[in-house]
Amino acid sequence: MAKGLLARKLGMTQVFNPDGTTAAVTVLEAGPCRVLGLRTPEKDGYAAARLVFGTAQRRRLTKPRAGEFRKAGIEPGLKVAEVRDFEAQVGQEITCAIFSEGELVDVAGTSKGKGFQGMVRRWGFGRGPETHGSMNVRKPGSIGATDAARVFKGLHMAGHMGAVRRTVQALRVLKVDPERNLLLVHGSVPGPRGGIVMVRGSVKQKAKK
Predict the structure, then answer these.
(1) For each of the chain's 209 residues, which pLDDT tens digit applies?
(2) Which of 30, 77, 113, 172 could form a disulfide with 52 if both were Cys (CB 3.0 to 4.6 A apart)?
(3) Does residue 119 form part of some domain?
(4) In a domain, 209, yes or no
C-alpha cells in the first residue's frame, strides 16, 4: 500500500551515527495531515486520498474550497495534495508514525527560485576570452546553424532558473518523532526553509546502502 504525508522543511542539521560519524539530515515537520476526501476508480478513474496540511485563514478561501472543508468536517488547511493508492477515511488524521526508522522515502518539492540567470550560471557554459578588449565574456555566441538558418527548439539559453518541481528519491529516514511531528531524513530535499514538500514511500524496491 502506498503512503504519503505533507511536511514543512524546517532546515538542515547533523546527527551522530552509532559508529561516531556524522550524517547531514533535513528536519521535516511531517503532519499531522487530515484526509479531506477520496478519489475512487468508479468516479475519478483512480484511487487517491486528498491530504490537508497546516491551517489557513477562512477569508483567504474560495467558496468551493470552503465548502469542501465544511462537508468533510475539518478545519481549513494551508496545502491540499493527493497521494495515489493511499487507503484512508475522510477526516482521519495521518501522522509521521506511518514511517519507520531506516525506511526509504521520496521527497518532492519546489526548488528555490533563482530569478533570471544567464547561461553561465543556469547551464554551466564556459566564458569567452577576457583579453585584448573582448566584449564576449559571458555572452552566448552563435545560436544558429549555418545550414539550417534557424534556432533549434530546446537550445540552452538565458532565462528563469529554479522554482520547478523536483523529487529526491531513496532518502533514508534516520529518526521519527511522533510526539513533536518531526521526521529526520538523510540528505537534502528540494525547496527553501519553510517550504511544503510531499514525503512518500520510496518507489525503488532495492534498499540503498
Answers:
(1) 688 899 999 999 998 988 888 999 999 998 788 888 888 889 989 998 889 888 776 667 788 888 888 888 888 888 888 888 888 888 888 888 899 888 999 999 999 999 999 999 999 999 888 888 888 889 888 887 777 788 888 889 999 999 999 999 999 999 999 899 899 999 999 999 999 999 998 888 654 44
(2) 77
(3) yes
(4) no
> For residue 77, what is the domain's CATH number?
2.40.30.10
Looking at the structure, do residues 105 and 14 belong to the same domain, yes or no?
A: yes
Q: Residue 153 contacts by C-beta under 8 Å, 6 or more apart in sequence?
A: none
In sequence order, which residues have a C-beta less than 8 Å from that of residue 35 and are 6 or more positions away? Answer: 49, 50, 51, 52, 72, 88, 89, 90, 91, 92, 94
In a domain, 197, yes or no: yes
Q: How crowded is residue 205: how many other Cβ atoms within 10 Å of its Cβ?
A: 6
User: Residue 115: beta bridge partners?
Assistant: 161
Split into its structural domains, the chain has a count of: 2
pTM of the predicted structure, to 2 decimals: 0.80
Question: What cell was used for 185?
Answer: 531524513
* Whether residues 106 and 188 fall in one domain: yes
Peptide bond into 190 cis (omega under 30): no
Give the domain extent around 156: 115-162
| Termini Cα distance of the chain | 23
User: CA 34 to CA 36: how far, in whole Å?
Assistant: 6
